[in-house]
Amino acid sequence: MDPSRLHPQARTAMRVQQRVPLTRATLPAARLSMVRATPDEVGSGPAIRSVVSVDAGGVPARLYRDAGDDPLPVVLHAHGGGWVMGGVETHDGWCRHLAAASGWAVLSVDYRLAPEHPYPAAVNDMAGALGWLRGPGAVAYGLDPGRIVVAGDSVGGHLAAVTARRARDAGIRLAGQLLSCPVIDPAADYPPLDEYGLDREEMRFFWDAYAPAGVDRTHPDLDPLRADLTDLPPAVVVTAELDLLAAEGERYAAALLAAGVPVTATRYQGLIHNFPRKLALFDAAHLALAQLAAALRRW
Question: Is the model's pTM score more than 0.85?
């Protein structure tokens, strides 16, 4: 590790979560480790006007509202965790912050996890929740079915990007997409940045769990770079210099721009994978949150 490249706060952040070598046998321990690290990484988040559990068309989800005016635009949020861990609890603090900072409602989707539920379970759950947001169930919660943004961190960014493309293909116009340190490319051709947190073997485990042998990873649902990207909603893409996913996230931002999609892409220097979620550890996480919230207010 080159200490000169690493943000000082990243040194502390990399020691917070107990790292568990990922195998099928150790996955329960890895899931628990992520949950246990959440208070120290994310914090509890602000008290906001309303937090309720909802059945989003058969998909469990949690709805956050801080503004009082109806109808509220809504962020459809997919959590990170390699498709195999994480959930509404690990991202509760972040969703609270986003709702408070933006004035938008946030619907955090508790999609099914791999390997118990491999592709396409997670992205189908996102589609189910999007369908619910566009129907009478969401209207009953004071949500605006005409102003929906998809968002996600890490593999949640992948799910958000795929959901945005699927929505366009179905004739649904979303207002935007917020992608934080997104997973994009199943080729898994990563740079040697293992010492900065997320490593290449973990990513290969995640991909094998979500899209196991026999699944065509060239399908646009798995490789967004192979999709027709025209007429997708405007995007904000946040990457971190020392994240092995940075290059693929930036390639995706460039591909969106080449397809005529308005894109704001920002690389945060000296930082590591998924720093925006870790609001209790990184000053830059609050800057990234402010950037995302500003985009929502503009949309």
Answer: yes
Tokens of 287: 């800057």
How high is the mean pLDDT in each 10-residue block of the chain (299 residues)? 69 66 94 94 94 98 93 98 98 98 98 98 98 95 97 98 98 98 95 88 97 97 98 98 97 98 97 95 96 97
Number of domains in the chain: 1
Domain of residue 168: give its range: 3-298
Residue-wise over 117-136: b if at least 16 C-beta within 10 A, else e?
Answer: bbbbbbbbbbbbbbbbbbee
Alpha-carbon distance 259 to 269, whole Å? 27
CATH number of the domain encompassing residue 80: 3.40.50.1820
- Examine the residue annotation and report whether 273 is marked as an active-site residue of this protein: yes
77 catalytic residue (yes or no): no
| Residue 86 identity (one-letter amino acid) | G
Catalytic residue among 102, 108, 154, 180: 154
- 180 an active-site residue? no
